[in-house]
Amino acid sequence: MAQPSRVISHISARACERMQDEFRDFNVAEFRNLNQIGIGLDSKAVNLMMKNPALAMDQLQPLVTQASVGTPVQFLQNWLPGFVFTITAARKIDEFIGIQIIGAWEDEMIVQGILERTGKAVPYGDYTNVPLSSWNNNYVTRTVIRFEEGMKVGNLEAARSARMQVDDSGMKRESCALQLEIERNQIGFYGFNGGANNTYGFLNDPGLLAYTVVATGAAGHTQWQYKTFLEIQKDILTAIQQLRTQSQDTIDPTKMQLTLAVATDVVDFLATTTDFGISVLDWLHKAYPGIRVTSAPQLNDADTVDDVAYNVFYLYADKIQDMSTDGGTVWIQAVPAKFQVMGVQQLAKAYEEDYSNATAGAMCKRPWAVTRWYGI
């Protein structure tokens, strides 16, 4: 007959409960009695616990939770201040030809009157007919182009953006202004082809004279990167002389304020020096102190000849002192509105804003005061 196993202990389901706090501090030497409740420890384990009472029972069981790092990385991050904005190309049309706020956003065009005085003096005679002088007038027009850019801000996105320290509405409003300025700058250089409109830019005004190629250097190239100090200097001197000639000495480069507008890709070649360390720019500032140098990426590859694109430069007078009543400017950028609020709409869960601008592009009012060169 089989001998029944000895029941060491029995705890009913109702009696099974969590160990009370007062039993947590019992002496480690009493661990030998744990076999009464089904926890078996040999003498080596008991001796180890007696030597190291800090060894707890839960250290002997396998992991129940997912293994993880000791400290979450969120507590080890150091955030640098501010945000780095993405770059946009420099907008240089205002630096090239200025800006004139004129008219109103709703205008259709701007008009520049041109007046020519006519007549010819003849030798005097008591009984001859009096030669009569007169005048002839014309009008040059430019069409106003309007652009718009808007923004919409939801309640939830604004609240969440604030939590990451970003002004959602402020950033979107700045973006509207930036995009409108980018478009105005583009029209200032290239104009706008909208079908029957009449809007031109710095690079394609219909009154401008044709480009002239610069001389070929000793290295067999026209580009400044292959030219010496003397060759680049000669290119600029030739342009200055051409400006004086075509204005019939109305423009004196030694006394008047002029602008040398150069393609961004080559403007730094004006730092080409002689053997004595004198750069082209040093010479230019000393010989013609009224000439300022500026650059823009729109002049890169601005002229194409035989399917080859070339960098260009312009040399032009800023203002002409004559009997005109328009102020004497050579270029004008007519802008009825740089930034205009069109409306704000409050919605149930968001609000919407719309902005606009208006520009008529660039107009060269005195083409004879501008000379253009390519091949640099």
Can you describe this structure?
It contains six helices and 15 strands. It folds into two domains: 21-56, no CATH class; 93-374, hypothetical protein PF0899 fold (2-Layer Sandwich). The protein has helices at 43-51, 93-97, 155-163, 168-190, 229-246, 280-287, and strands at 100-101, 109-118, 134-143, 145-154, 212-213, 258-263, 291-296, 303-305, 308-310, 312-317, 331-335, 337-346, 350-359, 362-364, 370-374. A five-stranded mixed beta sheet has the order 5-15-10-6-7. It has a three-stranded mixed beta sheet with strand order 1-11-14. A three-stranded antiparallel beta sheet has the order 4-13-12. A hairpin with a 3-residue loop joins strand 12 and strand 13 (350-359). The protein is elongated, with a radius of gyration of 41 Å. It has 376 residues and is an alpha+beta fold. The mean pLDDT is 88.
Question: Which descriptors apply to this entry?
Answer:
5-stranded mixed beta sheet; 6 helices; elongated; hypothetical protein PF0899 fold; 2 domains
What is the assembly state of the chains in this entry? single chain
Work out the count of structural domains: 2
Q: Please name the fourth-level CATH homologous superfamily of the largest domain.
A: hypothetical protein PF0899 domain
Query: Structural class given helices, strands, pairing?
Result: alpha+beta
Q: Please, how many helices?
A: 6
Topology:
Blueprint lengths: L42 H9 L41 H5 L2 E2 L7 E10 L15 E10 L1 E10 H9 L4 H23 L21 E2 L15 H18 L11 E6 L16 H8 L3 E6 L6 E3 L2 E3 L1 E6 L13 E5 L1 E10 L3 E10 L2 E3 L5 E5 L2
Parallel strand pairs: 1-11, 5-15, 6-7
Antiparallel strand pairs: 2-3, 4-13, 6-10, 8-9, 10-15, 11-14, 12-13
